[in-house]
Protein 1
Amino acid sequence: MQTYADPDDLADSVAAFLAAGLDGGEPAVVVATAENTERLRLGIADRGVESTQVDALLLTADALLYGSCIHRKSVPPLYGSDSTQAPPPTRSLD
């Protein structure tokens, strides 16, 4: 667990971690709000990771959507970081 003073502090730390893995060809999954996902993408780009590498290896999911799904016992699938790509329908855990 990590505490932080503001979202930019956390995003900087997480972006450094993600950038190291993505730059090395490792895939990653991020569950965050859209605003925080954008912070992370900017932090990763600031560390020199090519956008094509990020798009190929980084899967994102909206934390608000996942939070509501926990209450409904369903899991929305992960989807790419392209904001124009709509997620597929959710699947039920039942």
Protein 2
Amino acid sequence: MIRRFLRGLLAACLVSLSAQAATPGVGAGWTHSLALHADGTVRSWGDDSKGALGLGRSLASTTPRLVNGLTDVVAVAGGVSHTLALRRDGTVLVIDTERGLKPRR
């Protein structure tokens, strides 16, 4: 388990300098990482066994993938097996296997 955590942490740290200019925010969960881009979209990568990547599949991804349905996002955070995204309008989206991509107010 610690090995997966360290891989996720390393993946979050390996954001290239050119990507940092276009990435105003990052987040990390136990085994996944998130990048918030200036246009309000989110990309995720890492372990998706609990659905935290929001990619609609339960596979790992070693490269950042666009999370469909996440737009107008201003902040992201990762948990043990979920992702949270805050939209500009105040809506909080919870992403995991049980809820998929669902808004919470």
Protein 3
Amino acid sequence: MFTDTDSFCYHIKTDDLYKDMTEFSDVLDTSSYPPDSEHAALRQLYSSRNAKVLGKIKTNVMVPPPWSWWDCDPRCSPCRYPDGRQS
């Protein structure tokens, strides 16, 4: 787990991250999720209800979610995805 002034990252063990997120979607701002995504879970999570609401958790959409993440410094956080891509 790490944090800085505007980010919070933590370790999650789950079989289906997006399915689990539906259980607490009332505290999330998912307005940036693609409403026409090919992924059903993202379509289900999309909502503009909490858009820009103070105190709601804004997530960055990553499909599929990364398998691993390295925080090297504030401007460099490479990810590795299940399909082998890296950023």
